[in-house]
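Methods — Computational structure assignment.
A single polypeptide chain was analysed. Its primary sequence is given first, followed by the predicted tertiary structure written as structure tokens.
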Amino acid sequence: MVLYDDLPVYADVYELTKLLYVFTKDFSKEYKHSLGHDLRRDSARLSRSIYKINKSRDKAALLDEFLDDFELLKIEIRLSYDLHLLSNGKQAQLARLTDSVGRQITGWRNASSNARVSMVTAVESEQ
């Protein structure tokens, strides 16, 4: 099993978290402790999820949960941009990372689902 911190998706989630910490530092006081806090907390939660997914035998359910949490983070990022808390450049950096993370997690989920189907098929053919 690959260590979670060697996974490319973990590196992207970690970079996303770092950027959100840096970007939310400049949020106005009105948003720093509400939306900024939510962005930091939710992105850090995704890093922990990668660790849990990687060590789990049944990855599919955890990957689906990750994707739900990830979608909520993307909504928070979009809201930050719409409220003009993020510049176009910062939004573009975050969009590149969220796109990369989304593709990797979806691929991981599909591979896990295919592996589960293959295991079930193998067990049924033995019977």
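Note: Residues 28 and 119 are 52 Å apart (CA to CA).
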